[in-house]
Amino acid sequence: MWKRAAKYAALAGVLVFAGLQLAPSGERTNPPVIATHTLQASTDVPARVNGILRRSCMDCHSNETRWPWYSHLAPISWEMTSDVVRARKAMNISEWPTDRPARTIGILNAICAGVSSGRMPLPKYGMIHPEARLSEEDRKAICEWTSTEIRRQVGLRKKQLISQAN
């Protein structure tokens, strides 16, 4: 009797999983990358930091997301699509804001805060992609770079305010 119930439960599980694959998972898209709109085009990103960003951040925070095979399986696909959409809204390395230094400064502050606290990259991402985990040296390099870039952005903001006042 238990064997029969286990078989029916397994069959029901397979049918439910198969049925979930029919549900829409959201768009897994990569909008085109315009080279002049990227972080690298508008800031001086040291090679080390650029490497860290590529391996640990750009899958979610850019238009260059790699969508592995498991990103097409529900319910994983729903979570991944949602994470990428939220990440791109928060910060998109492929669409770096150059027209508003105040926004750029806020993003740079958030980058350092996110990596310093261990919130970024997401721990669940690090479980699947161990190469994306950040060392203490990685965190330090990112925060040093963001500090340098914030100082540069503050200078740009001051120039912007002076030109508006004149």
What is the strand content? under 5%
Estimate the global geometry from the Cα principal axes.
elongated
Q: What letter string, H or E per element, gives the SSE order?
A: HHHHHHH
Please give the radius of gyration in angstroms.
21 Å
Number of domains: 1
In terms of quaternary structure, the protein is single chain
Give the end-to-end Cα distance, rounded to a whole number of Å.
86 Å
Classify the secondary structure makeup into a structural class. mainly alpha
- Helix percent reads 55-70%
**Mean of the pLDDT scores?**
85
**Biggest sheet descriptor:** none
Helical run tally: 7
Let me know the number of strands: 0
Would you identify the regions where 5 or more consecutive residues have pLDDT less than 50? none
Characterise the protein shown here.
This protein is an all-alpha fold and 166 residues long. Helix content is 61%, strand content 0%. It has one domain. The chain contains seven helices and no strands. Helix 5 packs antiparallel against helix 7. The protein is elongated, with a radius of gyration of 21 Å. The model has no long low-confidence stretch (mean pLDDT 85).
